[in-house]
């Protein structure tokens, strides 16, 4: 939920500085944090573009080459505050980068992941990393449509290999849990956020669906738990001009769970052949034992479930933390699925 790349796409504010980051337009960063940023990037700061549109982070683009993230002090209506998970992100990225580096097959390079620096403990919480090149996936773009399936087969392979590496990575951290935002009580806490926004019929259909699927999942043998990105959608996947994978962003939602949740955002939006190629590479790279542990016979149903669950989560989170204008796409997706006759 960091929306890191928007800092280079939709600037909400900008400030020009001569060698420092001081100024009200830069959110009054302290001198000590400024000194750390300058020392880390090895150059004075001549330009800073600010993006305040992210749901959990303030993002600064520095000199067009570096990205800095600072957590927003957010709390919901009940007073539940979000806490920074930057140390968890860094540990994950360091671990995953090392894993990819040990095996350079499948056209996957560790350079697709950000090299993260964290401010020392005596300073404000801040994450800094070199800006990664590329533009988010847009399946509706004319270029993607004209190029056809063969053009993005390498992309499917690279993403399949990356997810295979991620899902087979073993890591421990006190903040690494199944539901990092307190959304573990889905039927009792999360789903009701949808009710005021849709008809009773739509809500009742949604409730029946989620109740049935959750009961089914609970009655089946448990799917293996994987280390998941948590928000592996097109906005966080950057492509180069040749449609090859350039970068993957925003691991702030990293969690433990069903690998199907990472397939869901792409499954919801991408061509079927793309997903077929992605899953084929995933199976090859992750190995047959891991693939079988995912219970592939129910995988498609679980992918659909996680796509719908994530849409409800976005509504719940957006309403709870004051981002009402960011829930339209998810709300329309839910209405389309659960409202009979909805276009």
UniProtKB/TrEMBL annotation:
Please report the stretch or stretches of sequence annotated as the Aminoglycoside phosphotransferase domain. Answer: 114-293
Gene3D superfamilies (UniProt xref): 3.90.1200.10
Q: Which InterPro entries match?
A: AGP_Transferase, Aminoglycoside_PTrfase, Kinase-like_dom_sf
Q: What is this protein called?
A: Phosphotransferase
What broad taxonomic lineage does this protein's source fall under? Bacteria, Pseudomonadati, Pseudomonadota, Gammaproteobacteria, Alteromonadales
